[in-house]
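debug: dumping io for the single-chain case to check the tokenizer round-trip. Nothing else runs in this session.
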Amino acid sequence: MNKRNSNMLWAVGIIFLTIFTCVCNFALYLMEKPKTPDQLIVDGADFTPAVELGENMIQGAAVFLMTIGYGIAIIILSLVICLILRFLVIRKISGDAVDYRTKMNLFKIMAVLSVVISLVFTAFKLMFSSFVYTGLWTLIAYLILIIPLKKLHESGLSGNEV
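debug: decoded output
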């Protein structure tokens, strides 16, 4: 794998994690939108509050489970992509400053874009999940990809020595 393919694979992996995070946030946003009319009347006024309460409970539980599920999916996908990039990209690059700066700049830009795009897609309503989901993949990428890349840069070694 040459240097150009290595950089391309790195970019595709990080961009995919960003897009996946934005899609998960947007899906949560769509789940939280009300799907029933404002006035729900069920066979008389006595049962309507109970039915509305049940509907809200089910919708809240579904959103909670989807939030946890998307978080787990982001963790698993981040681990898979970062491990692939670790073994295919970092082992093939040298410790020169250009590779390090390029990859770090792309990593930082995509982390910021992940938060910004997620916030825009969700109309700034899911700030917590936007930050948490982006934080999950950036933490995993930092531990698996950036720390070894930093060691390569500082030592000037090739990727085979790390």
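debug: round-trip ok. The chain has a mean pLDDT of 84.
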